[in-house]
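Form 7-S
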Amino acid sequence: MNDRSTSALVLDDGVVWPEDAVEVGRIVDAWGVKGGIKVMPFSSDPQALFCTKKWFLRPAEQAAGALSRPSAKTGEAGASAASKPAAPKSPAATPARLAAPRFLQMKTVREQGDIIVGTAEGLEDRNDAEALKGARVFVSRSAFPTPDADEFYWVDLIGLNVVNRQGEFLGQVADLMATGPHSVLRCVVPAAEGQDATERLIPFVSAYIDSVSLADKRIVADWGLDY
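Output:
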């Protein structure tokens, strides 16, 4: 699969892929026998999956250069098997998989333990749901509920510059890591001539974070360069 952006993409059913689409989870399996799906959210507080019934899917990514695993029979039979044509697989043995971006109009969505389960229009049976296994789930950022004054969505923190109280550059937020009680900012300073890239892990808690300005794209932290 290529990395072509899906911004301004018109899907087969005429729905336009949102320009502010944010990946919020992954379909991990079918649920039940009537077309339900199981979704693993990327956040411990998966409100983005509940804030809208309009979900957008992209196919699962395949690692570059990935090859199909040889069948067990080939390895067991040795060289003599090479001259034998492999028996064709039955359609049931190779279920279809999502091959292009798709829109899902969700009907029901609810939590079930650590996962989200839901039903959608157009998914009538387990085969329909299994065809979406591995698909990446996106929703429009504009559909997110407004957070409280002291709360932020992780997607809004990615790319912000982090400086300390002395104005020294600590890095740019590459991603956030969940460690149980709180999240940790992974800040990266790009490699410079003669120097390797630097990575810092800063707990995203009030004891170390002085301020966050989305408008200025900056986070001020009580953190030293030598920490």
